[in-house]
Amino acid sequence: MDHTGGEVVSKDIGLSPQGLVLDPALGPKGPYITIEGKDLHLFPGFMDVHVHLREPGFSYKETIASGTRAAARGGFGYVCAMPNVRPVPDSLENLKLQLSLIEKSAKIPVLPFGAITMGQEGAVLSDMADMAEHVAGFSDDGRGIQNEFVMRKAMNMAKKLDKIIAAHCEDESMLDGGYIHQGDYARKHGHAGISSESEWRQLDRDLALAEQTGCKYHVCHVSAKESVSLIRRAKARGVDVSCETAPHYLLLDDSQLIEGGRFKMNPPLRGREDREALLEGLMDGTIDMIATDHAPHSAEEKSRGLALSLFGVVGLETAFIALYTGLVRPGLMSLRTLVDLMSHQPKQRFGIPPQADCTLFDLGARSTVDPGMFLSKGRSTPFEGRVVYGRCLYSSSGAKTTWMDQAYFNQEGLA
After folding, report:
1. Preceding omega of 31 cis (within 30 degrees of 0)
2. I need a surface site. Which of 134, 196, 224, 339 has the fewest CB within 10 A?
3. Rounded to an integer, what is the distance from CA 318 to the centroid of its chain?
């Protein structure tokens, strides 16, 4: 499948010590091992525009090396790193610290976001102009920009710089100490709930600002049905808006919650109607892409139950296989559409030219999600124990092999 989400075609490929060869007749001499390729599919590398690599500052949760290894194993050839690290990339000096770590440790290309405000405190704009050429865009992900005047200034600057504002939409005045969705599960079990309005109310404000300023606006981790409707209407008016949702919002809802930290993320798992609205939004083009919001924490930080565990789950190693199993195999979505949402669409929106990257999956491989096998330092996933189909055998970026499933290729006599 090519980089524009094209048709699936049958083709011979070769794997040698030099890497993957799309035409073995023209590539380096073998020997090549013949592998029955009934369920093998080669895709353009995926792009995740929403990843928390936790470095610098929180390397006990994740490092750039461990996070990008996990990404390569999940089929990703490119990721964007969120700015809630320490020091916050709110100046060129701070950003260069992160860029040097990326250059030293990343296994795949990483493009960071710069912070919108100094210290991500929502008050004073960061040094956006100084950082612009080095970043994917600007975000204060983890917190919403509460002050409308500050967001307007940020959008005006982003428009001038031709950069994207990627917003975590959350009105903190409406949170009321909540930590899961304000729905049936919260009411039945005595948990403090987070209303959907805390998301869509701020989104509504931002869409009006984006329309007025003309900036490129991107909505992070959409979870609520009202948000989907607002974005759909804004697109119809010509607002330059894109948005993402995450695998867990598409495959799970609050009816599947249990008392454990691996089901706690922000925004929370919403209701069934919200999940159905997200799926509809994917199919009609309202939602532009799927991103993981990969947010690793230590085992202790995720062992405190729903009320006290930190927000965030990991997703780089489960995203494609969970979505393929839950959406493509049952016929809810075509394989072509899924790959487009995970590859072509995010690259196009964030200005990433087609890369010489690819990933090879065995879509017939069946397994059970086991966090103990993750390459990420994070282990908290709501998909733990779920039976999935798909196994990433190989990933590359440029001429560089970034992941090879040694167990598989040893079995086939290639590795």
Report:
1. yes
2. 134
3. 11
pLDDT score of 31: 58
pLDDT single digits (tens) 177-192 = 999 999 999 999 999 9
> Dihedral sign, CA of 349, 350, 356, 358?
negative
pLDDT < 50 stretches in the chain: 3
Give CA–CA dist 69/290, Å, rounded.
20
Q: Where are the domains of the chain?
A: 44-359+368-391
Assess contact for 218 and 137: CB atoms under 8 A: yes
Residue 293 appears among annotated catalytic residues = yes
| DSSP symbol at 255 | G
DSSP three-state, residue 307: helix
What is the reported pTM?
Answer: 0.95
CATH homologous superfamily for 44-359+368-391?
Answer: Metal-dependent hydrolases (3.20.20.140)
Cα–Cα distance for residue pair 152/205, rounded to 1 Å? 10
User: What pLDDT is recorded for position 355?
Assistant: 75
pLDDT, residue 128, reads 99
Beta strands (DSSP E) in 4-124 are 14-16, 19-21, 40-44, 46-51, 76-81, 110-112
Which pLDDT belongs to residue 159?
99
- Total Cβ atoms within 10 A of residue 80: 25
Please identify which residue in the block is written with the tokens 């390397």.
Answer: 59
Q: Which two tokens stand for residue 126?
A: 């960061």
Cα 108 to Cα 59: distance, rounded to the nearest angstrom: 18
Please answer whether residues 128 and 158 qualify as being in contact, where contact means their C-beta atoms are separated by less than 8 angstroms: yes
Which residues share a beta bridge with 79?
48, 110
**pLDDT tens-digit map of 243-287:** 999 999 999 999 999 999 999 999 999 999 999 999 999 999 999
